[in-house]
Design goal:
Number of domains: 1
Structural class: alpha/beta
Number of strands: 7
CATH class: Alpha Beta
Radius of gyration: 18 Å
Number of helices: 7
Low-confidence stretches: 1-22
Length: 262
């Protein structure tokens, strides 16, 4: 009986993975602020069970801010996820616009960078809220200090006007899915190589925050006063300290596994 149960579970898992692969839309890419015509990995056309979804958003200044670190950061992270877990991650990312009909619902993990400059429309706020309440997960990163926090909240408070942003407890499951992240510290961007500072603006301390749904599931993981994207992007840069990339990858891996299991 137990063997039969295992077979049924395995078949269901394979069916789910096959279904996800079947409905994934074709890969697309855009010119970016830092990279243009970035080379694709040899296996970029292979389908998978997980894809790094990067949020396209309108910004208060410079629309292309959503492309910061893209696509090098995304591809380094996907490669790391493959190595550190058994998740079949696609080697290339997927840029996702909330204005593109219902496309966001095909990609349950969404990452937003430099959200201290985003400026969502009312319809985009509605779509993001619906995506999250249906089970989607949003991770945002690389914004710093009180001014960028204020601008971030101008949009996020319209996504969830009735749900508070809270500091995450160190005992939260998201910090213990794969790695136990009790000893977290501020992960700086590449500006650290010039300035020697781990902080930017007045963002002196890293803040791990989030928004929960009614069942206690973390829907929005907010990485304020840190730059995990740069820690992924510069993982192969010998000048960027390894300890920051190591923590950056562990945080990202935990967030992905949490998103897939909660």
């Amino acid at each position: 009986m137990r063997y039969r149960t295992y077979l049924i579970a395995a078949f269901a898992t394979l069916s789910l993975i096959g279904g996800l692969s079947a409905y994934q839309k074709p890969f697309r890419e855009y010119p970016a602020l830092e990279y243009y015509a970035f080379p694709k990995p040899p296996d970029w056309q292979m389908k998978s069970e997980w894809v790094f979804g990067r949020l396209i958003y309108p910004a208060v200044v410079n629309y292309a801010r959503w492309t910061m670190d893209y696509p090098r950061s995304d591809r380094h992270f996907s490669a790391g996820l493959r190595r550190l877990t058994r998740v079949q991650a696609r080697s290339v990312e997927q840029p996702i616009s909330l204005d593109d009909a219902d496309d966001v619902y095909n990609w349950p993990f969404l990452y937003g960078v430099e959200v201290g400059y985003w400026n969502l429309t009312d319809e985009e706020c509605r779509k993001l809220r619906d995506f999250l309440l249906r089970g989607g997960f949003f991770m945002c990163d690389d914004f710093h200090g009180t001014r960028e926090w204020s601008n971030f909240m101008q949009s996020m408070s319209r996504v969830f006007p009735d749900r508070p942003v809270v500091d995450l407890d160190g005992k939260d499951a998201i910090f213990h899915t794969i790695f136990d992240l009790d000893d977290r510290y501020q992960v700086p961007g590449a500006q650290f190589l010039r300035s020697g500072r781990t902080f930017e603006h007045d963002g002196y301390e890293a803040r791990w925050r989030g928004i929960y749904d009614d069942r206690g599931r973390l829907m929005v993981a907010i990485c304020h006063n840190m730059d995990l994207g740069d820690s992924w992007e510069h993982a192969d840069n010998p000048q960027y300290p390894e300890k920051y990339s190591a923590l950056g990858f562990r945080i990202g891996v935990n967030y992905v596994i949490y998103a897939m299991t909660h």
